[in-house]
Amino acid sequence: MIRKILLAATLLMTHSATIAGDEIPAPETPDRENFQVFLLAGQSNMAGRGEVTDADREVHPRILMLAKDGSWQYALDPVHFDKKQAGVGLARSFAMELVARDEKLVIGLVPAACGGSPISTWTPGGYHDQTKSHPYDDAIARTKRAMQDGSLAGILWHQGESDSRPARAAVYKERLVELVGRFRSELGEVPFIIGQLGRFKGKPWTEGRRQVDRALRELSVEIPDSGFVSSEGLTAKADNTHFNRESLLEFGRRYANSYQQVIEKGK
Questions:
Q1: Around Cβ 215, how many Cβ atoms within 10 Å?
Q2: How many beta carbons lie within 10 A of that of residue 185, not counting itself?
Q3: Helix crossing, 172-187 with 207-222: angle to 10°?
Q4: Which residues of the chain carry a pLDDT beneath 70?
Q5: Bridge partners, 108 (sequence order)
Q6: Other C-beta atoms lying within 10 Å of the C-beta of residue 2
Q7: Which residue, 54, 53, 55, 58, is CA-closest to 2?
Q8: Is residue 133 within 8 Å of residue 114, measured between CB atoms?
């Protein structure tokens, strides 16, 4: 199936990668005019922990990702590389919704989520030991690299599980307001799309999670050019922590709808 939707004759090839035995040509950088870049930030449910299937390894010629080495590759799951558990996320289904609505559009995904990272690590100089990374600094650097070739069109955020303890939840809203301000100061006034934490039957919400949820909802109203994405009806893997593959695909579509609503409202 890969070969049927891959290798559009109009794409020039620069170098190649081997995926599951198939030679996959890497894309030439698209024309800047039609190349929209999105930063993917947060923790594990943004990075994605869904089971990878053959369908998630099929190339769409107008959906790219910034690889770990800073090169553009076709976006195949896992898009992220924060931990060895990285799997299907919401990024590709988000991008597929957008390119389906505009035949000229090319999407560039910038993976920067770090599984388990509290919002305190999303600060200049902040360090996250689990992923041996500097979440905020790395996200800024990777996004600026991507912006050399395309225009930043939005930031997708899903985070808050690590801040659901009472002391952290109490200051979560303040910290997220500051983070959005820093992102926009460094990267530009782009839409900020906020995803709701998982609402799983097997894991009732604590008061801390409810407080984080209120903060996310309030911010999506109070911060200009922002949107809130409901997780209602989505389901978890057996761990009751991470969305399963099907739910992540749906979540990505919901993110795309929220993004489009923000864009339309701003016109």
A1: 22
A2: 9
A3: 40
A4: 1-23
A5: 37, 64
A6: 16
A7: 58
A8: yes
**Rounded Cα gap, residues 77 and 230, in angstroms:** 23
Q: CA angle 252-255-259, nearest 5°? A: 140
Q: Check residue 159 and give left, alpha or beta (phi > 0: left; psi -120 to 50: alpha).
A: beta
Q: Is 149 exposed, middle or buried (0-12, 13-18, 19+ CB in 10 A)?
A: middle
Residues 6+ apart with CB under 8 A from 147: 37, 187
CA distance 196 to 250: 13
What is the pTM (predicted TM-score) of this model? Answer: 0.91
At 11 the pLDDT is: 36
Could you give the angle at which helices 135-146 and 172-187 cross, rounded to 10 degrees?
30
Phi/psi for 177 (5° steps) reads -60, -45
In our burial notation (b when 16+ CB lie closer than 10 A, e otherwise), range 39-53 reads bbbbbbbbbbbbeee
The single-letter DSSP state of residue 196 is P
151-158/35-42 β-pairing: parallel
Q: Using one digit for the tens of pLDDT, what is the confidence trace for 104-160?
A: 999 999 999 999 999 999 999 999 999 999 999 999 999 999 999 999 999 999 999
Which letter does DSSP use for residue 150 in this model?
Answer: S
Closest CA to 203 of 168, 242, 229, 246: 242
Compute the distance between CA of residue 41 and CA of residue 157 in angstroms, rounded to an integer: 5
Size of the chain, expressed as the number of residues it contains: 267
* Token pair 């990267």 in the structure block, residue: 187
Q: Given the DSSP bridges, would you call strands 22-27 and 13-19 parallel, antiparallel or unpaired?
A: antiparallel
